[in-house]
Design a protein that fits this description.
This protein is of the alpha/beta class. The protein is about 40% helix and about 10% strand. The protein has helices at about 15-20, 40-55, 90-105, 120-135, 150-155, 170-180, 205-225, 230-235, and strands at about 25-30, 65, 110-115, 140. Helix 3 crosses helix 4 and helix 6 crosses helix 7. The structure holds zinc ion.
Amino acid sequence: MKKTQWEHLRRNHFATLVEQDAVVIIPVASIEQHGEHLPINTDANNCHAVATRAAESIDRFPVLVLPVVWPGYSPHHMVHPGTITLKFDTFLHVLTEIAVCVHTHGFRKILFLNGHGGNSAIISSLRLKLTAEHEISVVGYTYWDLPGVAAEWRSICETDKGFAGHAAEVETSLQLYLQPDLVDMKEARWVPGVYGDPTYATRDKGERLLNAAVSGLIETINDLHSGVLDKRLEWGIEVPIE
Ligand SMILES: [Zn+2]
């Protein structure tokens, strides 16, 4: 079976992967409370699953998945036990330095995949920051913002309408599919720290929601690899008129 996990490689594997213009996914999530029914690693697990399944589905070129950057920006969840957050500047530095390392090793197609709402604005801003300050081109997406995902999720969900409410229908469904042993549906209810209604979650919805996110990511990776995505995201750079 082909290797997709960065940490399973040996150092002599990397030269070939760079030559083959591999896409590198940097999953970014959180370790934070998800109500009384979901595990603390919900975002990390969902995000890593989307990244890994997409990487395994693509055969035309290699796709590598870094270990999840598990601490995110979650100060708003610190009121509940279990949450580990970085400060804003620390988080930004961690992401920047990881991208710089990946780039230093020769990779030119770098995609941040985010799985936590509190990180979204930071992830979207990384493209401008890394281009302007480090001359490194990256793209960044939160998995529920990938192409086609919102529309598909709206048709699957009864309460979360096209996005992932915190510890609600989407995230609970995904976890019932991915790590059911860590979910306690007897404790699933709308309590402080849960934004939405987890009681509508099912394993079947979780499988369909995950497949939609994986399809959206596969499309995005293909567009990144072919150069189509960079063209679409190009912003106008002002040049002085001679
Ligand atoms: Zn979450």
